[in-house]
Amino acid sequence: MERLQKVIAHCGVASRRKAEELILAGKVKVNGKIVVELGTKVTSSDTIEVEGVKIEGENKVYFLLYKPTGVISAVSDDKKRKVVTDFLPYVKERIYPVGRLDYDTSGLLLLTNDGEFANLLTHPKYEVHKTYVARVKGLVSRESLRMLERGVKLEDGITAPARAKVVSADKTKNKTIVEITIHEGRNRQVRRMFDAIGHPVQKLKRENYAFLHLGGLGTGDSRELTPHEVKQLRALAESGTK
Ligand code: URA
Hints:
The chain is α+β, with helices and mostly antiparallel strands. Helix content is 22%, strand content 30%. It has 3 domains: 2-54, Structural Genomics Hypothetical 15.5 Kd Protein In mrcA-pckA Intergenic Region, Chain A (Roll), CATH 3.10.290.10; 62-124 and 217-239, 2-Layer Sandwich (Alpha-Beta Plaits), CATH 3.30.70.580; 130-209, Alpha-Beta Plaits, CATH 3.30.70.1560.
């Protein structure tokens, strides 16, 4: 089930805002009946007409992007900063990011026009595991790693069990590289977890998303997921396997 305005927007007929205007203006029919309520839920079996023209579902597409730092995980930005979809100009479908990476975080980000798939992967109940490599200030002790693994208290609650290990430590530069795997997706979670243990993050990169990795991609590069990868991701999320 998806919101009507979202479905219209994803079919490339209009922007989300324009779709809302069309609905409010009584120009949208669902199964032959005018619908003026924003947020009406529809499924793929409903027939939707916009100004008398039946809309066809867009092909579902799935991409993996190596997001550079200094890019917003969005499809547009008021301040005209670079957005992730700028890196996939060859995609004509209206894709958007699955979850988000911070402006200053680089790494693996999925993009799709499949709302159900995106919801599934970002649903708190099903969140798949993600691995980040963080360069943090200070030398991280074993005890601190254990705190990350057991769960740290953040303002929105204690974090779920995670895995963390030191990749390397530099005493002279007073910094540590830590690999951390989490399966939640709270806002700025990794940065806040390291803040909570007194080791602010200086650099953050997402290396893995479930079984996916960046492979040989360079920063700013993207590739389409294979049908098998899409199937596996869906199965993984649906099974609740973290
Ligand atoms: N955790 C963060 O703090 N930032 C990200 O971009 C992703 C996870």
